[in-house]
Design a protein that fits this description.
The chain has about 260 residues and is of the alpha+beta class. The protein has two domains: about 130 residues, no CATH class; about 100 residues, no CATH class. It has eight helices and nine strands. Strand 8 and strand 9 form a beta hairpin. Helix 1 packs across helix 4. Bound molecules: zinc ion.
């Protein structure tokens, strides 16, 4: 691919992300270029990939050219840089690493989001606050048999740590109860009340992506959320669906 063609593709990807969300990140550009599969992005965020460049489908020289084009474009467009924290959705919430080298300049360039100057200062601050918030922990409902790296046991759910997959008991998450997706109001209330929570996902082979199964929350938070059912919370009216099955059951193993 010629340099001019690459430049055009980078700018197109960046413009598309900016139009959609009013800011654009290096990660958005990589996804837009088709160099980073959403599944690989999910796995990196889950702490299952040591650094992002490992799963980017482009050579390092091409990648650094693209990043240079992106920064130049952002400067030309008058976008406002905003450094954003990226932490893993793991129990230790460690900072995510982007580059092979881990060099601080490169890491910072990846972390910088470019925000539309058309957003008011207040909106930009809200956006930065929202993006800087640590993401929900993610717990995986595995498709295959697996072994806990810490206790050599297994279980219906696992969470990735830097040592590898760990069971919920070893991760000190086994006091949480499972609330399956389907009742948006109940989920929102339980999520708000629970100090510790984790999103449960499972990989769909047919759709080739991780799909949300439900939420792990503290049992007290779930009880409280169940007590404040709609009627008392009018925002939940209309989204309330009948509870399916026992919300405390863990998701079944796939057959
Ligand atoms: Zn264990």
């Amino acid at each position: 691919m010629g340099g001019a063609a690459l430049e055009q593709r980078v700018e197109r990807a960046a413009e598309a992300a900016l139009a959609k969300q009013r800011y654009v990140s290096a990660v958005d550009v990589l996804v837009g270029l088709g160099w980073l599969a959403p599944t690989h992005l999910d796995e990196w965020r889950q702490g299952r990939v040591p650094y992002l460049e490992r799963v980017v489908q482009a050579s390092l020289p091409k990648l650094s050219t693209a990043m240079r084009v992106f920064r130049r474009w952002a400067g030309r467009r008058g976008l406002v840089p905003s450094e954003t924290g990226y932490v893993a959705r793991t129990r230790d919430r460690r900072p995510l690493r982007f580059s092979v080298s881990g060099a601080s300049e490169i890491e910072r360039a990846y972390r910088t989001h470019w925000v539309s100057p058309e957003l008011s200062v207040a909106k930009r601050e809200r956006l930065a606050e929202r993006q800087g918030r640590p993401p929900d922990l993610v717990v995986i409902s595995p498709l295959k048999d697996w072994t806990c790296t810490t206790c050599s046991g297994t279980g219906d759910l696992l969470i990735m740590q830097d040592v590898g997959p760990v069971c919920l008991r070893c991760a000190a998450l086994d006091h949480l109860v499972f609330l399956p997706s389907g009742d948006a109001g109940l989920t929102r209330r339980a999520h708000r009340t629970s100090e510790l929570s984790a999103v449960v996902v499972r990989f769909s082979r047919s759709r080739k992506r991780y799909e949300r199964q439900g939420l792990l929350v503290e049992s007290a938070a779930l009880a409280q959320a169940e007590q404040s059912r709609p009627g008392t919370d009018e925002r939940a009216v209309g989204v309330h669906a009948p509870a399916r099955g026992d919300p405390r059951a863990t998701p079944g193993r796939p057959s």
